[in-house]
Input
Amino acid sequence: MSGAVLAMPFLVYFIWSFIAPGLEVKEKRYVRFIVPGATILFLLGVAFAWGIMLPAAIGFLAGFEPEIFKTSWRASAYIPFVTSLMFWIGVAFELPLIVFFLAKLKILTAKKLLSWWRFAIVGAAIVAALITPTIDPFNMALVMGPLIILYFLSVLLAKLAR
Output
């Protein structure tokens, strides 16, 4: 996880280096915001996963049907579980930056994003179900809520991008 966090600015820079030759000068100046923004949003996602999502998920898994299941934690299962959860939630928090960039390139508009809000809710539910390691709706809602908020924040950023 530390490697992903530390590598994120470099990954964003390399992706930007690939895309930049096809962009105009005024579009290229946004790189100053994209690299630090991507790092900050990724760190916010990791912090959310660590501070809010992970304790709720562990609490649910530890207390799920204790009469039937015996909880035994193994590092070989726990570490990939935590790492995967934190990484994918960190990646999901990149949505506003991606939408802002696409709006700057005039690929997306705030009006179009607002017209797709129903699909965004369903998409957030699907992504939350894929990211969430447990089967309960509470943990899924913990992921889905921020994804929906991030979507509407993305709409606002798309409006500001014009």
Notes: Helices lie at 2-19, 25-28, 31-63, 75-92, 95-104, 110-115, 117-131, 137-161. The mean pLDDT is 83. The first helix runs from residue 2 to 19.
